[in-house]
Amino acid sequence: MKEPFGGYLLNIAFRLLVPFTVVYSVYVLILGESSPGGGFQAGVVLSFGIVLGRLIMGEDCKLFNIKTKNTLVIAGVGTFIYSLAGWLTLFGGGKFLDYSFLPFAAEHANELHALGILMIETGVTICVMMTILNIMDAVVKRSDDDGSAE
Amino acid sequence: MSYVSLAQEIIAYVLMGLGLIFLVGSAIGMLRLPDFYSRVHASGNSETLGTMLIFLGLAVYNGFSDTSAKIIVIFLFVFLGNPIGSHILAKTAYKTGHPVWTKKHAKEAEEYEAKAAEKEEN
What we know:
The complex is a heterodimer of chains A (150) and B (122).
Chain A: H1 7-31, H2 39-57, H3 68-91, H4 109-140
Helix pairs in contact in A: 1-2, 2-4, 3-4
Chain B: H1 6-32, H2 36-62, H3 66-95, H4 106-121
Helix pairs in contact in B: 1-2, 2-3
């Protein structure tokens, strides 16, 4: 990324903000188990970075312009990861989302709890991020016939 | 939950109250102001200030902890991101020929907006 793409201000803003935002969202996601933060907040911060990148880079950049139908599909994948955690506990012999029955080797039940919560919050993060991008697409493409995005 | 002293609480309430005033002002400006540029001004300046004051109030209320460190980082995101967003919007609108509202040329700007709305409907 040697060539500047839109004046000094946008150039510096992109290099400074977008990578830091993405890394920080992962930090919020991982630490959300034991302190304020978690899946929803991490998803919002991540989508903030992607929306900012999309605003700065314009329509040419393929990295940030995820297609509308793809955002819907990936949001569904996030929901699938969430429910997969629940089903794994069912296969382990417990109730739905009863983390201590996750079928993984662990020395202590707390490790299984942390793993299950991390799995669920990863799913929530992906779903929230893609839903926000989808809402942004719907607002931008409001001029379609029926008011929906494609 | 750690102990929150009285001075801490009062400072936090004052900061958050000020932030609330700025946020309400920016919302009223979004509804009342006549054209795109002045609305961007309303949402860009006073909303950034209001959000920052509310975050500062929350950080003061939490005291020295990792929670307030996280709040300060989010504060920095808003502090940098919100002006950049309004800058991009206003610059793009000006470059694509959106007319600037003045009292003298109010009619032309209104006609342009009506035409754009008509285009959107078709």
